[in-house]
Design a protein that fits this description.
Shape: elongated
Strand content: under 5%
Distance between the termini: 63 Å
Largest sheet: none
Helix content: 55-70%
Number of strands: 0
Low-confidence stretches: none
Amino acid sequence: CGGTEFTPADLARKNSLINRQLERDKIEMKRTLKILLLGGPECGKSTIFKQMKIIHLNGFSDLDYVNFRYLIYSNIMQAMDQLLDAAEMFHFPPDDSPSIRRALNHYRSYKIRYSMSEVELNRELT
């Protein structure tokens, strides 16, 4: 069929090029963060995606981290409260395990001791 024959040196060079490209792709893939946006139709997934693209072209500023950390913290605390309130309202007792009881006691005492403005979140957590 008139095919081209490659020498072992040609094949080794081609293999080396492919391996280097695979290594570059592997490094690039490790640096890529993937986010799955879930939601019904017309719920704003595309809008959030576009906003994140715009924001991340230059990354978040330190001011952005400060502004959002309390909002995120507040959302987490509200969600925990809602889950615990719903469990209590529907008479769904927590697991009797000591670790669950310790976690619930810790959460409740934490909420009593600290207000949202007293929470210091470092940059890695925000």
